[in-house]
Amino acid sequence: MNDKGLSEKEIFSYLESAKSEDTDYYRVLSSMCTHPHKIAVEAHRLFIEANLGDLGLFAGAHRLEKEAIRMLGELLHASSVEILSEESFGNSVCGYLTTGGTESNIQAVRGMKNLVITGKKKLEEIPNIIIPESAHFSFDKVADMMGIEVRRAPLDSEFKVDTASVESLINKNTIGLVGIAGNTEFGQVDPIEELSRLALENKLFLHVDAAFGGFVIPFLEKPYPFDFEIPGVTSIAIDPHKMGLSTIPSGALLFRSPSFLDSLKVNTPYLTTKSQFTLTGTRSGAAAAATCAVMKYLGREGYVKNVKYCIQLTAKLVEEARKLGFEPLLEPVMNVVALKTPDPDLVREQLLKKFGWNVSITRTPRSLRLVLMPHNTAQDIEEFLQDLKKVTSEL
Ligand code: PLP
Q1: Are residues 288 and 314 in the same domain?
Q2: Which of 296, 318, 337 is the last residue of a domain?
Q3: Would you say the CB of residue 102 lies under 6 angstroms from ligand 1?
Q4: Which terminus of the chain has fewer CB atoms gathered within 10 Å of its CB, N or C?
Q5: Does the reported pTM lie above 0.70?
Q6: pLDDT class for 90, splitting at 50, 70, 90?
Q7: Can you give the pLDDT at residue 120?
Q8: For residues 182 and 189, is the Cβ–Cβ distance under 8 A?
Q9: Is residue 277 located within the same domain as residue 378?
Q10: Pocket of ligand 1 contains residue 212 by CB under 6 Å
């Protein structure tokens, strides 16, 4: 650290130089995050010091968190399944705002494990969960941290988890299943209703990772079933800081029953509340304010418009890519496209090096992975496809 503080001018020139190295989402086709909505940014600023780690000191920010959870519960059909109230939350929906999909997934599995340990189920060996092969790498962290075996079920020809394989992986030590509603690489939605049937038949928990899809699927012209309307779904991860247009860090974890939150509680002797069920201690009240504000500002109509825009970009990309001879691996389900090209790794490298495009790659099979977000435009797509054509014709 420098001995003496720098001037404001020096600091800002230092910051601006760092900022100029950021993409600012220009030519970014690989990100599931985007510019936060201006209302979210303003709300975030207003609550910049609020710490949801000590709820009693920040009752206002906590009220906004509860309201965000209530709205998310409504979006995910929680109201239709009678979600019981959680005392410390004092309203009818059970959950909290996390730092993102990773924390939500970790906490969902921690909840499963704790409930099994306190419950009647006898495990003979280490517990296991079954996740799709396409699951986000946050489940590698789950495996590493939680002393749980993570079993991976293969995908079918449409890149959905193969439910027969899931069934064959269930054994006496299985505690839960995971389905993905909008997987990271393909944007595909797993057959959540079938997973629910398996979960109910085998008395297992079912966590749905809708970190990306949660703010997409409900706003599609034809939504896919994935949420609490399906009886076996016990928890859902949904990220306002992705397609919800909130600020980072804004994730959310919702549970069907408050027993999950209870199972996560630790005592907090020197805070204004007696216990805490979150993973992190200090939490951003600013992100809660941002999420609540942008959801109220946009309403359903605003999110429908946002999703429609991204879906139209997706359709344009696929249509024009086809004219150039590039086929998608699957018809896009949401605003994620897996595009077949020769040597995708080299194409990715050249697109970045020559034209500054940030794209990513699907693992199996390898293809270009493109996410069409609100920061992208129709002109971006035209330029991108011309550059893609150039790069592939030089291979
Ligand atoms: N789950 C899914 C399906 C995701 O796509 C992602 C990130 O892209 C995550 C979880 C992790 O979210 P985060 O990076 O906000 O922790």
Answers
A1: no
A2: 296
A3: yes
A4: N
A5: yes
A6: very low
A7: 61
A8: yes
A9: no
A10: yes
